[in-house]
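Honest question from a wet-lab person: if I give you the sequences of every part of a complex, can you actually get the arrangement of the whole thing, not just the pieces? Trying it with mine:
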Amino acid sequence: MFGFLVPVIIGLPLFGFLFTALVGRRLGKQAYIVPVGAVGIAWLIGMWVVFNALTGAEPFGEGGFATRLYSWIPAGAFHVDVGFLVDNLTACLLIVVLTIGFLVHVYSIGYMDHDPGYWRFFAYLNLFMVSMLLLVLADSFLVVFVAWELVGLSSYLLIGFWKHKPSAALAAKKAFIVNRVGDVGFALGIMAIFVDTGTLNIQESMTRLTAEGAALPIPVWVVALLVFAGAMGKSAQFPLHVWLPDAMEGPTPVSALIHAATMVNAGVYLVARTNPIFAAGGDAMVVVAAIGIFTAILAASIAMTQTDIKRVLAYSTLSQLGYMFASLGVGAFTAAIFHLMTHGFFKGLLFLGSGSVIHAVHEEQDMRRMGGLASKIPHTYRTMLIGSIAIAGIPPLAGFFSKDEILGEAFKNGFQWVWLIGIVVAVMTAFYMFRLIGLTFWGESRVDPAVEPHIHESPSVMTTPLWLLAIPSIVLGLVLSWPGPPLGTGTGLLAGWLAPVFEHGHELLGRAETPFQLFGIDGGLLLVSIVVAVLGMVTAWRLFGASLGGLRWRPDPERVRSLTARVPFLYRASLNKWWFDDLNHLIFIVVGGRVGAFAWWFDRRVVDDTVNDIAATTVDAGKNLRRVQTGRVQNYALGIALGLIVMAGSFLVLAAR
Amino acid sequence: MLPGILTVTTFTPLVGALIVAAAPTRYARSLALAASLATWVISLLLVIGFDPHAPAARPFQLVEAINWIPVFGIQYKVGVDGLSLVLVVLTTTLTWISILASFSPIKERIKEYMVSFLVLEVGMIGVFVALDTFLFYIFWEIVLVPMYLIIGIWGGANRIYATIKFVLYTLVGSLLMLVAILTTAFAYQSANAGSWQGAFDFEKLHGFGFDPTLQLFAFLAFFLAFAIKVPMFPFHTWLPDAHVQAPTAGSVILAAILLKLGAYGLIRFAVPLFPGAAHTFAPAIIVLSLIAIIYGAIVALVQPDLKKLVAYSSVSHMGFVTLGIFVFNVQGLDGAILQMVNHGLITGALFLLVGVIYERTHDRTIARMGGLAGSLPVWAVALGFFCFASGGLPGLSGFVGEFLVLVGAFQFSPWVAAIATVCMILAAAYLLWMYQRIIFGELSGFLQGLGHHLVDMTPTEVLTLAPLAALTVVFGLFPGLVLDLVGGSVANVLGDAARQAAIVVPPAAAALAIALPIVYVVGRLAWVAWIDLSGRGPGSAETPAPTEAAS
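Yes, you can. This is the full assembly:
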């Protein structure tokens, strides 16, 4: 049965995409029915599959259920099948992708209501669902790569959805090309895996790559880093992070679904999926941890000063993804997936909420022209507040548990420097989130007076998904990490689910599960996490105001100004995103343009002119030799005479020898 | 299978050409289309009649052999293996599409045009089925004549320059090849006690171990002919000129089929006849392929003219083909053949799409376009589809060929693969940048001035593109359709290649062969740079800028 159901999960949105692409234009405002319905049914089937997988029912068991669709590339020894694998890791990803995907589809019915490209939007969304589902279900590296590029395509189409906007076109192109940089690494990694193991099936090749004493043509740490390069591109890790903030040019539901909750997690998923390669790759793990935690602090520092509400959330996403990679790098694979799941929900919520805000204030994204919106759009306000508390790491909401687990694992696994930077990032996270809430919802209204009277809460088709996302943002952390019965047996629910997936990796790293010590090291770290989160939150309140229940603090712009004046360099660096865009402009547009111009000049002046010169020389030779043909008998006679003399002379010389 | 079906396939277009020539001009279009469609249908019968799992001892099927010039053992001998078959079908498919695409753009001398096209098809099919080296040469040269006329008569403003350059350049290589063909025949004849029997027969020649020195020189002669046709860096500069000047359908056939003749020649003749020399020169050819891949992409990036951009992208893509051939493994050669097919489909479609916009605007300058998504939505979608296909988007056919070549190259050397893979970024860059400039944004002022001329694709234009799009998807999802057919050919070519190790060249000669071109390029570069920078020269020796009006 599952051999049929699993392909159907992909088939439904595929049908929705083809149907809407072909006839959607004629359906007008009804265009959403088929695509949303397809994803809805896919959600139902998916949850049935997930339930069976996580409970270990037949035929899933411990190792998951694999099914083969057809033989894709038969090229000698290079043989690639299209097949699917559903194990517990895939199941966790399916929960995130299908649930948030479905809610975003529903939300979009309202959000895109006035857009002339209504049908196109839903077609693209379904195409994205196809690609993303293929990505998490595929059991071959090359098929994962296919999905990898297809999510890139959907992302390109959706970022550039508003075609008339030049900035959208630029951002779409930038996203695709930067992703391709990472993909080059991934592609080379796949080739290396084939050369090393002779197969591209994920499970088989990992077994062979990590087998002891295997003398591989390409060392396993090289493979790990190449795969990680792909992950860096898709998950926007430094230095390939530049595309994600610009991707906010797309419609907000897209930002929520693709650029916060699902696609950007693909890199985390890939590294988690290939955890034995990294575990066997030695220092490759340290690289992952370092790049992750560096991205986390870099992005958080930028998020603190941005004024565009979506950009703050975009940099926040970068920062949280950095956490996940740091977690993978220190060997805390479960914690990374934990954070992936909780972050998916609360960041999806925050983005959809920001979309609702933007909708309310008539497509305004600048938080300097918001303020005091709490009472006007209460549902949006309350759900976004929940999301903010969750991401800031205040217990008992979801983000606290996952973030604390990452930081705790980092500390206990001997990566104190990761922990320390992570703690700083945690302060910054709480700070910029409550800065966002303060600027948007609290204090005096700075909204354009012309827009002010028209501010309205979004329709229920948009607020319902917000509340539905708010629920997991509150409880998911507690549920998934609950150590005792009835959910877990000492290790937490999620840890139990993922144990078979990460068993091999943990074995290679020599890690053993240690029981949770509330009154030992774990409790201490936990306390630190709470303290820093509150610290960041309260700082934001002091500076940007707060009105929460009985708490009423006025914003203090004077102090903000004096604080920024004290660290002018840091402030400008943060405001200008550490000048990465300018650096890229210099390297790729200015220098790259010069290289291109030179190459073309070289092509004309050196390569082509050589060809033309040869032709010209031939013509010239003909022209000059033509003068010999004067038509005067005397000249010819002279030639004959000279020729005779030369011939006779040479004959004499030769004969004399 | 019907006897003589290969001959029928090859010469049906010729019959068609004669009928078109005899019939009144108003029927020229439909008769030509009918003839090309008939050829296409017959070629599909070939696929049905072909047995991909025939024993390796008899690689060629449907063979027909008749003595032609018995004194020299020259025969009319044709036959197909999987490789030829795939390319024959590609040819017949693209030919009817090209003829259909010429219906509205070609308004003058329509009868002559259609006759040229059908004769061209005879030559192209002939090249792919000939099993006699002399016959191969005849077909090879036949191809030149109609193409010379197509560019020279129905081309753009600077068509004479372009077509003469195209023909002379190709002739330089092919005449040397003729010498090499004769040399191999003489060598075979003298080794067989003076009997000319089989001296031009490919099936006899490819098992024959030629003398090392002869191999080196004959290989170079063959290689030059084929490398110019492919075209490999640095023999590629005729291509942008020819493409820019050729009418749309001419560009389509040029890119889709004529370039494949060169690659086919390398696989069919250059490698199996001279395996030792092929191994000797492989490193150099791989380097040239890498240069073509990267350099073609970089030059494509800065092209102001749509057709030139696609032309340089062809140089880059064909670099993958030559790379795949000369790494000598299954994946590389499989990938090279797939890449040939895919490049034919995708680049053919891109030239058709450029033709569509040129029909409406009489311009191909990227800078003047903009915002076409609103006015020509179907065209915009089609262009996007084929741009992504050309950029190697997985799921579409371009990806599989390219990736197999890369896998093959990786086995040869990871560094070679690493350099070639960078093309993934560059291809995305030049295609998407082009797409962004002509599709996104507001409609440009130049296009606004065209008013009602700016209409979306006509049903005929859609009909020309639909089969290419369908095949691009089908071969992307089921590359096995091609790979299964060519499996035997690949095994045979690699078997021939493995017969001999590289012929050792004196180190001094090798050093000289490497040093001389470098010295020349550096010297020329310095000289030209001095002229251009000091403002002595004309600044650009480029032929008159391609801003011609419609022909």
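Two things worth pointing out. Chain B has two domains: 1-49+59-212, 274-510. Chain B has a mean pLDDT of 89.
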